[in-house]
Design a protein that fits this description.
It is a single chain. With 166 residues, the chain is of the alpha+beta class. The chain has a single domain, classed as 3-Layer(aba) Sandwich (Aminopeptidase), CATH 3.40.630. The protein has four helices and eight strands, in the order ββααβββαβαββ. The chain has an eight-stranded mixed sheet with strand order 1-2-3-4-5-6-8-7, sandwiched between helices. α1 crosses α2 and α3 packs across α4. The longest helix has 18 residues. The two termini are 24 Å apart. The structure holds coenzyme A (COA). Coenzyme A (COA) binds next to β5, α3 and α4.
């Protein structure tokens, strides 16, 4: 199901058949350096199933991001499950060869606009590894506000926490 279209991108819901495509970023040690490390095919197949269920239950999830021009899958961008205090967490993971082209910001901006129009989301949160400068840059460009350092269970460290109230 296509969720969004931007000038250069199409975002659609994930499917199990996307496994080969998502391994180009979820299986990459450098891409996943600040996001829990690279996954095996078995783990990412479970992730796809989890996100498909989440889309059915909650009406939102991370979306496969495709270049309109070439139909290449370049990454994933969208919404992680609610956590303590926020309705969803913004997420974006892009294959290395597509960094530095503005795609992450373009996709994330479209997701936020979509949430404003179509979803019952009031607060989007994002915790970022303190060394992940390019991700913090994206959040600032999108208009997220820095709230402060917050303990992150997943990574066992204090991380800069940002949020956006819709
Ligand atoms: C975080 C991540 C998505 C950021 O990607 P990115 O490509 O740096 O971010 P953007 O899409 O906003 O691109 C920004 C750059 O594209 C450049 N650019 C080139 N063409 C552009 C265009 N047409 N429009 C806008 N920007 C363009 C900009 O100059 C900008 O560089 P700058 O920020 O140094 O000025 C990417 O590094 C990534 O996937 N990392 C691994 C996963 C990750 O850490 N995710 C987040 C936390 S878990």
């Amino acid at each position: 199901m296509v969720i969004l279209e931007t000038e250069r991108l199409i975002l659609r819901t994930l499917e199990l058949a996307d496994l080969d495509s998502v391994m180009s970023f979820w299986g990459d040690i450098e891409v996943m350096r600040y996001c829990g490390g690279p996954g095996t095919r078995e783990r990412e197949l479970r992730a796809l199933q989890y996100y498909m269920n989440m889309q059915k239950d909650k009406g939102f999830s991370p979306y496969l991001t495709i270049l309109k021009e070439s139909e290449e899958v370049i990454g994933v961008c969208g919404f992680n499950p609610p956590n303590n205090g926020y309705d969803t967490e913004l997420m974006y993971h892009f294959a290395k060869e597509y960094w530095g082209k503005g795609y992450a910001t373009e996709a994330a901006k479209a997701c936020i606009d979509y949430a404003k129009k179509h979803l019952k989301i009031k607060k989007i949160g994002a915790s970022i590894d303190p060394e992940n400068n390019s991700s913090q840059k994206v959040l600032k460009k999108l208009g997220f506000n820095y709230v402060g350092m917050k303990w992150c269970e997943g990574t066992n460290q204090d991380e800069p926490y940002f949020e956006m109230i819709l």
